[in-house]
Amino acid sequence: MIVVSDKAKERILELRQEEGRTENENIRVSVKGGGCSGLMYDLGFDATIVETDHVFEDKGVKILVDRKSLLYLAGTILEFSDGLNGKGFQFINPNASRTCGCGESFSV
Distance between terminal CA atoms of the chain? Predict the structure, then answer.
């Protein structure tokens, strides 16, 4: 399961409206190879739910995760920061053994 913080929910709703997205477009979270630590997070809107997707809902936000990515993302908290140290979505991932300095990539 992936948990969405209140700030992340607010920003997702803002982005959906700013980009002219419909409520049928959910958040897809996945893990791809790359980055300083070997794995990178990928986050975006997606209206297509594939049969092998795991679908979670937290605070009214529907999150789609493919089967492979779920192995790396189970228990993750999706947070949003708009502070002086950086602005953007952050993944608080209990499965990550190491992250890069910018927080964009991780390893397990």
Answer: 18
- Domain containing 60 equals 3-107
pTM: 0.84
Please name which of 55, 53, 79, 80 lies closest in space to residue 67, comparing C-alpha atoms.
53
Rounded to whole angstroms, how far apart are CA atoms 28 and 60?
14
Number of domains in the chain: 1
How far does Cα 41 stand from its chain's mean position?
A: 7
Q: Are 65 and 54 in contact (CB under 8 A)?
A: yes
CATH number at residue 36: 2.60.300.12
Q: How far apart are CA 31 and CA 37, in angstroms?
A: 12
- Per residue in 52-96, pLDDT (tens digit) is 999 999 999 999 999 999 999 999 999 998 876 667 898 998 988
